[in-house]
Each structure stands twice: as structure tokens, then as C-alpha cells.
Amino acid sequence: MREPIVIANWKMNGSTEANRVWVEKFLQLRGDLECRTAVCAPFVYLPQLVSLLKGSGVAVGAETVSSRKNGAFTGEVSADMLADIGVTLSIVGHSERRTLWKETDEDVAEQAALLIEAGIAPVVCVGETLEERESGRTEEVVLRQLRAVLARVPAARLGAVAYEPVWAIGTGRTATPEAAQAVHAALRAELRASDAAAADKLPLLYGGSVKPANAHELFSCPDIDGGLIGGAALRAEDFHCVCSAARAD
Ligand code: PEP
User: Fold this and answer.
1) Is the CB of 209 under 6 A from ligand 1?
2) What is the CA(166)–ligand 1 centre distance, in A?
3) Which has the least CB within 10 A, 21, 107, 111, 133?
4) Whose CA is nearest to atom 6 of ligand 1?
5) What is the structure's pLDDT at 249?
6) How far is the CA of 71 from the centre of ligand 1 (A)?
7) What are phi and psi of 154, to 5 degrees?
8) Residues with Cβ < 8 Å from 189, sequence gap 6 or more?
9) Residue 171 CA: which ligand 1 atom is closest?
10) Where are the domains of the chain?
11) pLDDT tens column, 106-130
């Protein structure tokens, strides 16, 4: 019913040569994957990836986008610019952006709105810190983050929502499938309250130390429709292994 999608988030990694080798390897391995795939990379490499992946079916995405439309915002990259070079999706609200660059729920909602206006699918990240989890506030936090976006844009226009517990990102600690599924079910219920048809179609991704060894178990949960993959996406072989764990129902 929902086609799974697995998205690589390269973060601040890569080089022209390393990217070329990664793409060549991944396209060789890809064969019979049952999921959609995408690669999100630093802005400077997006034109290279758009060109290397043209016609391959692997989508190219940005890791963030400006919350401003255009003008005197030195160093920023707008949604219209991403659309102009052929980018079709973009992560917004990654916890590294929320924590290190102080992006707020409102910034994330504005980024999503500008992406949609430019014809790009936002992949909205939500997730709680360890302290929030330990104080029993996980649902409150992720639902607040999601509601801020839904107050600004319709659920039907989102590309995906990614649940990424902050304490699981890049730490080697993964949420148990049961804990991740519980949060995904809460997110799905919130989306249903806003638009039932869209909620049934929208992929909900899990992210946070997903690797070949744990992907199958996580992706087998009923409300986990794929993943957002950091560390394990840096090697094409590992990313391919993770992707092969995502199967259509
Ligand atoms: C991420 O940064 O989106 C992520 C999930 O990273 P990792 O897989 O390395 O935990």
C-alpha cells in the first residue's frame, strides 16, 4: 500500500571523486530493490549528483534549505534554487540543524512551505532528546514538531516524516522496534486527524543508527516505511544492504 523509501543523509561528507565512486557502486548493486531510494548531500555536490543519477530513479535531495524566499541572506540556499537545479526532495528539521543552528519549529514549517511552493517534497524530521524521553515527553515533543508543520502545509504535500530520536543519531544506539513503532503509530494518528487519506499514503521513516544488522527488524514494523540513514549511507554497499531490508507489503 505504501511504497517504502530509504534516504541517505551524507551530512558534511563526500568529494567529487568519492561521490562518483559511490554512485557507480550503488547503481551496480541496486538490481532488485523493492523500495524507492534517495541521496541527500551537501549543496555543492547536488548538481553533480543530479547529473550522475539522471534517469536512474534515485532521487537527489538537499539536507536543509533556507527559511527565506530570496534576497539579502548571505550564504543561504533557497528552495527555488534547489528546484532550478533538479533537486526533488529536501530534509528539514534535522536534529543537528535544530540543535546546532537553532532552527525552530516555525523555521522548519516555513522551510517546508517554501519547498512545497517550489515543487520539492519536504522530508520532515522529528525526534526527542534523551532527557525528553527519560522524562516521558517523547510523544509530546514529536507531535509538537509535527503539528507546527501541519499548521502551515497540508499533510498530502509532504514527502515523508522521519522519526529520529536525537539520542540514537550517530551514537550506535537504536530505538527498539517496539519503541520506534509506538512513536510512528502516534505520528500516523496525528496525521490521520489532519487528513486520513494522506496519512495512509505518507511514508514514516525511522532514523538513528540504522545499519544492515538492524534494518530488517525496524522496517518490518507496520508503521515504519523505510529509513533516513546517516553513517551507514557513507558506503554504497552498506546503504544497499539497508535498502534491501525495505520491502513493499
Ligand atoms: C541522520 O543523521 O539522519 C542519521 C540517522 O544518522 P545515523 O544513521 O548515523 O544515526
Assistant:
1) yes
2) 9
3) 21
4) 230
5) 67
6) 32
7) -75, 145
8) none
9) 10
10) 5-244
11) 999 999 999 999 999 999 999 999 9
Kindly give the number of the ligand 1 atom that is closest to the alpha carbon of 169.
Answer: 10
- Rounded to the nearest whole angstrom, what is the distance from the C-alpha of residue 73 to the centroid of ligand 1? 28
Cell 550564504, located at residue? 75
Could you read off the pLDDT of 76-110 as tens digits, one per residue?
Answer: 999 999 999 999 999 999 999 999 999 999 999 99
Q: What is the pTM of this model?
A: 0.97
Whether 212 is in the pocket of ligand 1, judged by its Cβ within 6 Å, is no
User: Which residue, by CA, sits nearest to atom 1 of ligand 1?
Assistant: 230
Query: In CATH, which superfamily holds the domain spanning 5-244?
Result: Aldolase class I (3.20.20.70)
